Amino acid sequence: MRINPEKCVACGNCTYVCPMEAIYIDPITNRAKIDDDECVECYACYNGLSREHLNPTLVRTVRRVLKWARVRFDPEPDVCPTAAFEPNELTWPRVVRRAFSDPRVPHESTGVEGRGTEEVKTNDVSGRVQTGEVGFTIEFGRPAVGVRLHEVQEMCFALARAGVAFEKKNPITSLMTDVSTGTIRPDILGEKLMSAIVEIKVPVSRAEEIIRLVWEVEKKLDTVVALGVGVRCDSAGEDEIVEPILARLGYKLERAKTNIGLGRLNAAQIVQMTPEKVTA
Amino acid sequence: MTNTLHRFGNAESFRDDYVVFAIASKGKNDQDALPKLRRFLEIALEYKPVNLGDARHGGALRPSRDVNPLSHWKRDVKPDFEAVIRGLDTPTTCAAVFDNKPAAEDFVKRIKEEDFGLSVNISTSIDGAEQCCHYAGIPRHSVGYSLGFEGKTEKLPNSQVLMLSTMCGHGMISHQLARKMIDWVKEGRRTPEEAVTYLSRFCSCGIFNTSRGKRILMDAIHQKASEAPVAAEHAK
Question: Mind listing the pLDDT tens digit for each residue in B81-134?
Fold first, then answer.
């Protein structure tokens, strides 16, 4: 992303809307600038700010007069008065930032928008997490802190050493050069993302071990981690196995995403699928 | 995806927050999902949601590509639900946000009767979702628990800012903008109603709950901090 200096009037609205706090008013040029190393190409500025198309020279003049008179204009805080934001053409490896940061861009590896994962949201159709299993989503950088891929790799290394298999239909897994070790391709390790999700699945008997492993690794990371735990309920709709484990580990469960089981395979698509894919 | 799982707050703070979303699974039941998703949104409208959205185009409050300069003094802040339904042009996650349990319960019951064959999820407190399922006569199929935020939680802002900003799980609502809106409401520069419309326009999936947002802003004025700790509690 770039801010066109010919258009920018240094109103400062955009400095508040950047989730990474990567936009600032340069005191020398008196224009808004983006710290490219911190910017994750989430497009919150470009997509979220409404755009006016005012004449920049006129706006700067008005602002100078108001400033001289110590009068503060109180404009709408979510508007760029001169539509100064212009997307750059992103090339590798920077394009990885946008794929993991702009929720409107579907991940090529999964075809899914957002963070590119379906998790237990479609478990009634995909059968991804079965009875006796626990699906973990380990999200890094959320909320609005950000993460470098080398930090994600630290967790992947530890999980791989524990003999855990990574979910194949996951954007992070698709960037690994060696899934048996959790190694992510080296040319993107320095890239900063809004957030990224590592997905794994283990038997219930290993749930506590995995959580304790995550606790150990997250201490070494310079970001926040959000853990999600997906389970298949019993026929009565209850989970009497995993919830007690989480309670024993000290978690106070407040919120959950509940799949109510209304999904089913599409008959026409079943015909196109090979038998081993029909798992649900 | 809508990314509603890690909304910050304790269970009590979700008493006016029920996100119900429909999603097709890629390659398994997404071929004829578009008309079903559109119908899902149309039905939701009958139950008076506070927001509707799809993951590609956003919610009922959207940024404008060509703002009239007069809008600084008189801006339309009414959500346009019909635009969300009209704009849906590809199978993606569609969400309806309700600010009361009866509406969410009735909607879930109706969706069960419609039998679209799409996956439907309720994102709220664990008890709240269980009660919706019970009301509709559906046993829960699967649950995705949020264990909260861990690691370097000192990088996170205070709980009120976090409750506002995490209503977009993709991080499109910056902590700074949420903090600024709290300040502006405190200073009387904007009403809570105006402040939540600014925040909502940044949420690209349309899952920002404007009712809950107003309540959080009002609590912030009166300095009622959330009791929930920012960091997850566990036996480290």
Answer: 999 999 999 999 999 999 999 999 999 999 999 999 999 999 999 999 999 999
Q: Which of B116, B57, B105, B103 is nearest to B81 (CA)?
A: B57
pLDDT tens digits for range B185-231:
999 999 999 999 999 999 999 999 999 999 999 999 887 655 456 77
- The strand pairing partners of B231, in sequence order, are B149
Contact A256 B205 (CB under 8 A): no
Q: Is residue A96 part of a domain?
A: no
Same domain as A156, residue A17? no
Q: What angle do CA A25, B200, A95 make, to 5 degrees?
A: 60
For residue A63, what are the domain limits? Answer: 2-86
Instruction: Chain A: give the shortest CA distance to residue B34, in Å.
Output: 13
Token readout for A56 is: 């920049």
Task: For B103, list phi and psi in degrees, rounded to 5.
Answer: -65, -45
Please give the single-letter amino acid code of residue A25.
I
Q: Tell me how many degrees the CA angle B126-B127-B132 measures, rounded to the nearest 5.
A: 100
What pLDDT, on the 0 to 100 scale, is given for residue A279? 45
DSSP label of B122:
E
Q: A246–B130: do the CB atoms touch at under 8 Å?
A: no
Whether A121 and A209 map to the same domain: the answer is yes
